[in-house]
């Protein structure tokens, strides 16, 4: 986890220049429309054809080589940010957003003066960023994102994005228990793979020779997902694709193995539905 919130930035012009600067500091970023919603950064997702929810705010069962919208698109890779696929989005962008969870932080979004007054009475001081209607309070540490934990207060961390409004003032404080408690009214436990997920296998002779080969492959896949600092959605899909490519034809994979991969992905903020979609998309890509 990078815990990357830049302290200072050079004076730059253009949303792409700002995005590249933030990405170089370790902040996973993405372009925003003028209305604050993310773009679809490829023809498939441009008109929501991939199944994302309205305004592209939540990634759907995207079949692109790179999931290209909402928080799942956030990346620190300058080649992706500067790619031709994203050029149109940057030309039309109204701002730059970032994935707080990917940067190792949580944003408490206070949407008006009353919410700010509540935070000053109830929460420990931390990095504060002025917004158009209130403030963002930024804490070091991640948690699940929850909207409307109280009137005009949202929590943005994993599986969410926040508009970049500047570096703010004050030192980053550790994420307090008071903020985590706000989310407890809507608990969401990590769940293993649904039993409806098909376990592939052609019934052929196992080419792995020993169970250790498969175990090593699953452990490496878990590690790859766990260590992802940005583009989590893309990492999960590519990891599922690699596991299925190596182990999906001979019948060695079990629901227990798939459950381990789903659990690792959900610990990084992926929903059960997104895990199911990524697994199905990987199978389709391999013709299974």
Compact summary:
The chain has helices spanning about 15-25, 45, 80, 85-90, 115-120, 175-180, 210-225, 230-245, 255-265, 270-285, and strands at about 30, 95-100, 105-110, 125-130, 135-140, 145-150, 155, 160-165, 175. With about 290 residues, the protein is an alpha+beta fold.
How would you portray this structure in words?
- With 288 residues, the protein is of the alpha+beta class.
- It is 35% helix and 13% strand.
- The protein is built from ten helices and nine strands.
- Strands 3, 4, 5, 6, 7 and 9 form a six-stranded mixed β-sheet that branches. A three-stranded antiparallel β-sheet has the order 1-2-8, covered by helices on one side.
- The two termini are 34 Å apart.
Q: How is the main sheet built? A: 6 strands, mixed
Distance between the termini: 34 Å
Strand composition percent: 5-15%
Going by helix content, strand content and strand pairing, the class is: alpha+beta
What value does the average pLDDT take?
79
SS element count, helices: 10
Query: Overall 3D geometry?
Result: globular
Uncertain runs with pLDDT below 50, 5 residues or more? Answer: 7-13, 186-190
Indicate the percent of residues in helices.
25-40%
Q: Radius of gyration over alpha carbons?
A: 20 Å
**Based on DSSP secondary structure assignment, what is the total number of beta strands?**
9
The SSE string, one letter per element, is HEHHHEEHEEEEEEHHHHH
